[in-house]
Amino acid sequence: MTQQNRLSGGLIDRSQPISFRFDGKTFQGFQGDTLASALLANDVRLMGRSFKYHRPRGVFTAGSEEPNALVELRSGARQEPNTRATVTELYEGLVAKSQNRWPSLALDIMGVNDLLSPFLSAGFYYKTFMWPKSFWEKIYEPIIRNAAGLGRLSKQADPDVYDKGFLHCDLLVVGSGPAGLAAALTAARAGASILLADEDFVAGGRLNAESFTLGDNTARQWVSETVEELSNLPNVRIMTRTSVIGAFDHGVYGAVERVSDHLAVPAQDKPRQILWRIYAKRTLLCAGATERSIGFANNDRPGIMLAGALRTYVNRWAVTPGQSVALFTNNDDGLRTATDLISNGVNVAAIVDTRPQGTPVQSTKHLFGAQIINTKGHLGLESIEVRTANGSTETIACTALGVSGGWNPNVHLTCHHRGRPAWDDTIASFVPDECPPGMSVAGAANGEMTTAAALTSGANSAVKALAELEISAKPADLPLAEDAPVKLTAFWHVQGGKGRAWLDLQNDVTVKDIALAHQENFRSVEHLKRYTTLGMATDQGKTSNVPALAVMAELCGKTIPETGTTIFRPPYTPVSMGVMAGRSRGRDFRPTRHTPSHKWAEERGAAFVETGMWLRAQWFAQPGETHWRESVDREVLATRKSVGVCDVTTLGKIDVQGTDSATFLNRIYCNGFAKLPVGKVRYGLMLREDGIAMDDGTTARLSENHFVMTTTTANAVGVFRHMEFCRQCLWPDMDVQLISTTEAWAQYAIAGPNARKLLRKIVDPEFDVSNEAFPFMACGDIKVCGGLRARLFRISFSGELAFELAVPTRYGDSLMRVLMEAGREFDVVAYGTEALGVMRIEKGHAAGNELNGTTTADNLGMGRMVSAKKDSIGATLSRREGLSRDDALKLVGFKPVDKTHALNAGAHFIASGNPTDAAHDEGYMTSVAYSPGLGHYIGLGYIKEGSKRLGETVRAVNPVADTNVDVEIVSPHFVDPDGERLRA
Amino acid sequence: MIINHPLLGPRDAQEFTYLGDASLINRPDWTADDAGHQFYEYQYLRDNPAGEHRELWFHEQGDRSWLVVTRDTRTHIITNVELAPEFARKAGRSK
Question: Which is deepest, A316, A442, A480, A728, by most CB within 10 Å?
Answer without folding.
Answer: A442
